[in-house]
Amino acid sequence: MADEILAVKQRFELARLRTLGGATLENVAVGYETYGALDAARENAILVAHFFSGSSHAAGRYAPDDPLPGYWDAIIGPGKAVDTNRWFVISVDTLVNLNFHNPKVVTTGPASINPATGKPYGLRFPAVGIGDFIRVQKALLDHLGIERLHAVMGPSMGGLQTFDWAATYPECVGRIVPTIAAPTFGGWLTAWLSMWAQPIKLDPAWRGGDYYDGPPPRAGLEASLRLVTLHALHSDWADGPGGGRALAPGGDPADVAATPFAVEQRVAEIASARLDAADANHLLYLVRANQTYLPGAGAGAKTVVEGLSRIKAPTLMLYAPEDQVFRPEWIQDTAAVLRVNGVHVETGEIHGPNGHYNGILHIETVAPQIAEFLARKF
Q: Which of 28, 155, 239, 304 is deepest in the core (most CB within 10 A)?
């Protein structure tokens, strides 16, 4: 299409980052993409934050023959809900990005070279939180001369980053659209995140994180990605075409060492497609960043309630009622807290057979609500 975005990955380097945990990182690099043009007043910028296994590739294609566009291409672009004829959209690779081995991703994390040793950090890389992702994004915006964002938005972990922006820098954020995410999650999701990480730790090739001079823990990482995939999907997807209890071609349920069912193979195919780009240690660091999430921690908040009390921006919370990662009652709990605090809050439902992934795969179903919310004057 003539109006389709041709995406270009750019690189930002920060000489020094002081993390929320008190560590100092030098030569921090992240990638970013922009779509549209910044207006003369520098007031039309929208930051889009990505999900756990995603990257800054939110829209467009790197080349016309790329098989797939960015994950939210359905709503970002000329004439779309996030209209790049009007808005200047910025998306940034996070620290410890899962897709370290994808040449289109720029990130600093445990697989990066430690300038002090000339070797990969491994688990000597300091723990980082979502608040640290926000600090790097803020430094990039300062570099670009953007003092205030018209909006911040993003799905899943991107939604957590969205809340964190509004809690940490309330004076810099005009409105927020957190999608399939809530900061009021508790032990259930915390435990599930640990399950995502466990297969890596059980793989002998992991070697306590020091595997960069030998074979990586590929089997453990693949099993972790299977868990992430299935948790984020829904029974409607698993029982859909080619799923259910159907056997795969040649599948033998008598062979207990095999994976004979079609749904098992579908999950394995999705996980395997991500495997070559992913780094096992980066997945572990992302898990911990999500488990320790606290909105506004970078501004001194000590509890979720305290962090939410810092949010003033009008809020559109989009959620999937069938979501089994960020359950719908958590979204309603967060909305209730914000309303008690006097925040203007709206909600919208995203339906489909894909559970948590509805917030990515079916985002176009709420495109009119997004467009109206972004354009409205508050």
A: 155
